[in-house]
Amino acid sequence: MSGAEKLVCVTGASGYIASWLVKLLLQRGYAVKASVRDLTSPVTFTPTDPQAELIDPALKGTLNVLRSCAKAPPKKVVFTSSMASVLFNGKRLTPDTIVDETWFSDPDFCEKSKLWYMLSKTLAEDAAWKFAKENGIDLVTINPGLVIGPFLQPTPSMSVEIILNLINGGGQTFPNTVYRYVDVRDVALAHIQAFEAASACGRYCLVGRLAHISEALNILRELYPALSVPEKCEDDKPPMQVYQVSKERAKTLGINFTPLEVSLRDTVESFKEKGFIKI
After folding, report:
1. Which residue out of 121, 133, 232, 274 is catalytically annotated?
2. Per the confidence metrics, is the pTM higher than 0.90?
3. CATH of residue 256
4. Total domain count, the chain
5. Residue 279 lies in a domain
6. Angle ∠(21,27,30) on CA atoms, nearest 5
7. In a domain, 278, yes or no
8. Structural domain of residue 124, as residue ranges?
9. Which residues neighbour 182 within 8 Å (Cβ) at sequence distance 6 or greater?
10. Residue 237 annotated to the active site
């Protein structure tokens, strides 16, 4: 590659995934131009004003970047989406269900269910695809699940905070929830592979392991016996069903998913290193 071809722009570069992406790009010899959003406006799962706090920033931020791309078309645009824009359509999930890139969340279902974060991600990805098609932009989307693993920023991201709150709670119950875990380093690498591979196109679901939160807590209990890990579920309902997420397209990017045990261990080591827990 020439010097010009080794130049990339990373938006939201202070974020959890993007900071790892910048690190890996620099290690590969890329020159990186980075932009950041207002550091005082983090994403939330529980907005008081969903339109102003989640939906508008997601849509406007996405389209602002793509409009800039339309003026000076880059080689390729890799858009960080989410499994939130894949899964939430009201379909029944069973152990035999295989979720893949053909699935799209339904905005009406998300709105009726007050799934505001899922709605914002769904609308943003939909807008990105429409704009890219209308303006001839080569777009790829990466759709990760719950991103965990070590963090480079001084404070943990929203996804990693889920783990921190569970192990910092001191005997709290845990939610009856199934999470779609993926390591942040795998997500960052997938962005680079999608950018570099001429054949990469469309969407890529990234879920290394799908497991009930109790399974992750059991792993943490074994790794760190001194941790105060909750042992009781917050309700008496049957455990949420585990389904399947296809890894076929992720494999075409050369992604070999980091084991959940490694991701959880490295997450906790980051908490220790940055002073969020003492064990």
Report:
1. 121
2. yes
3. 3.40.50.720
4. 1
5. no
6. 75
7. no
8. 4-273
9. 144, 145, 146, 147, 148, 206, 207, 208, 257, 263
10. no
